[in-house]
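Researcher: I'm preparing a figure for a lab meeting and need a structural model of a single chain. I don't have an experimental structure, so a prediction will have to do for now. The sequence is pasted below. Please return the structure as tokens so I can convert it later.
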Amino acid sequence: MGYLISCGWNIEAHRFRLGRHDVDLVARRGAVVAFIEVKTRRSVVCGTALEAVSRPKQRSIAKAAELWRLRFGRPADLYRFDVVALSEAETGRFDIEHVADAWRLLREPQR
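Model: Understood. Here is the structure written out token by token.
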């Protein structure tokens, strides 16, 4: 969270839940609200942090995000989904990669 705060984000919620669906962080900077999934990786053997956010996980995050938007959103807000990836460097420290607008929701075709 310190990284996001240092980048000018205000943390609106931490582990916001809707039943089994949750959003790790909800952050705001002006009218932009980011629903953020945080992933930590010690290696990329099992894939990158971004790859770990599967389509089912994206849909799950979106359900919790929609509830947050209905409860706390403002009319002029703009919403996006981000991933913050923490990867362990050889020094033992962690590198931070913030992937803004990491995915977009695709609407299911109407039948």
